Amino acid sequence: MKKEYTCIICPASCVITVTSRGRRIISLRGAKCQKGIAYIKGELIHPRRVLTTTVEVRKGRIDLVSVRTRSAIPRSKLIPAMNILARRAVTAPVKIGDIIVKNVANTGVDVIATKSVYKA
Amino acid sequence: MKEKKVDVAIIGGGPAGLAAAAKLAGDGIGNILIIERNEWLGGILEQCIHDGFGLEIFKKSLTGPEYADYYIRKVKKLRVPCLLSSMVINLSRDRVLTVARKGELLAVRAKAVILAMGCRERTRGALCIPGTRPSGIYTAGVAQNLINLKNWMVGKRLVILGSGDIGLIMARRFTLEGAKVLAVVEKLPFASGLERNVVQCLNDFGIPLLLERTVVDVHGRARVSSVTIAKVGPCGRPIRGTERKIACDTLLISAGLIPENELSRGAGVILDERTVGPLVNEFYETSAKGIFTCGNVLHVHDIVDWVSFEAERLAFGVKEYLKKGCIAPSKIDVKAGGGLKYVLPQRVSGARTVEFAMRVDQPGRNRAVVFRDNGRIIRRFTFNRVSPPEMIRAKLEESDFKGIKMLSVDIER
Ligand SMILES: Cc1cc2nc3c(=O)[nH]c(=O)nc-3n(C[C@H](O)[C@H](O)[C@H](O)COP(=O)(O)OP(=O)(O)OC[C@H]3O[C@@H](n4cnc5c(N)ncnc54)[C@H](O)[C@@H]3O)c2cc1C
Ligand code: SF4
């Protein structure tokens, strides 16, 4: 089977043509770098994504802190992780890089703050 | 009115203003002032909580606030003064700024001014969609601000008009927050946002991208109840008989960005019809002496890293200007020809290496960007693929400019 994928690792958005038989990759063409090849291999087996959202902050100068998973988590875990984060609240001060939830949805990946929120 | 004198006044504390300030202060320019209307620095990045920033500069995928944090820290470390919650309401040609701040006005006299005001969104008014005027219609950037900074869901069942990046990113954001995004409707035969956003934000969640279609009517009294979409013909007009109603409570409009140039106009800065931003030379100086510009106010960027690089090149120009009191005249006009929406800078001196930024008007593969002087080819650059949402860049060396009177750039198939 031949299929075209678009690499989403960087804005170069290489179009990578993959020829495969079942789960076996026969050829991979069009990736400008190794990251693209690793991405396609992952995409075929179990796609992963970085999750970004916000978490409520108490007693802060602003009411929300933006957060991210430190690295990509399985795509199927995005919604379970969102549900956990929707219930989570933290108290100011929060520093950029602080861990907000450890091992979110059993992915082995932590959720960290992407901005600092000072006390009100 | 209170008065203040500075060497460099920077209007806007977004990535463009911050990177320019960091570079200038880092190179020893002392008397700089950043003026920012928000209570915080970082510009639009503070609401762009998604990742994908910084791949060029930091070689990793940062979120908007993380990217901004790097430059904010740098500027703070260099002790660059910032006036927050302060809005520049007027700029004169001789570089006097009027700043509204905490109920008072302040006049700032600057040797050099950097315009870094960013851009604003095209609204429904700018698109002329007929129908009623119920609540539930937002621009995508406003919806992004509300959800990401105020936790305010604008709706439960959304239709998004326009496939620009902000619209695509909002489709995913609202889906993750539990809303249903029914469709993204795009007039062109291709998405106007980056391909990776189509994959990550739409395909991942099975959100349909309806190409060559547009919203022709909005229904509802107090609140949007549905929208009518229709196919568009080759000339961009809706085709009768193809209308379809979609029940929804919210319409998000992601119809592109326009450089924010009210202040520039007021100062008599000449704008380019193609970029809708100021005309500049390779030093990023506008037609008004001592007024420089970079970032989204100059031309809309898809990638913030290019904004930071541009700001650093601008800083070089500002330093030259402060040292010599003027910028060497730029006599060579640069014209964007077939296949290009624009090329920038629009004028060059020919005395030094210049990096040009361009946008194509159509997607394509294996295209060449050709620089010519009166028909004579100076240089060609080939690109595997080009697309209108992605800025392309090409550098001409000092030696390339020898004997050139007028430079034209076009796309060769
Ligand atoms: C929704 C969205 C998503 C994006 N996604 C990505 C992405 O995934 N990856 C990527 O690399 N890039 C992305 N970009 C592009 C990038 O964020 C922009 O190119 C960049 O922010 C532009 O920086 P700027 O400093 O020119 O403008 P801005 O960030 O808009 O900053 C302008 C600043 O000027 C201030 N200002 C304006 N007028 C005045 C005035 N009169 N007085 C005082 N202050 C004033 C504003 O308050 C603002 O803080 C995105 C942009 C948007 C809008
Ligand atoms: S293959 Fe490499 S260069 Fe191409 S989009 Fe992916 S990461 Fe970027």
Description:
The complex is a heterodimer of chains A (120) and B (413). Chain A is of the alpha+beta class and 120 residues long. The radius of gyration of chain A is 18 Å and the shape is elongated. In chain B, β6 and β7 form a beta hairpin. The mean pLDDT of chain B is 93. Chain B is globular. In chain B, α1 runs parallel beside α2, α1 packs across α8 and α5 packs parallel to α6. In chain B, the strands form seven sheets. In chain B, strands 1, 2, 5, 6, 7, 8 and 19 form a seven-stranded mixed β-sheet that branches. Chain B is α/β, with parallel strands linked by helices and 413 residues long. Chain B starts with a strand and ends with a strand. The structure holds flavin-adenine dinucleotide and iron/sulfur cluster (SF4). Iron/sulfur cluster binds next to α1 of chain A.
Structural features:
heterodimer, A: 120 residues, alpha+beta, five-stranded mixed β-sheet, three-stranded antiparallel β-sheet, 2 helices, 10 strands, B: 413 residues, alpha/beta, seven-stranded mixed β-sheet, five-stranded parallel β-sheet, 8 helices, 27 strands, 35% strand, binds flavin-adenine dinucleotide, binds iron/sulfur cluster
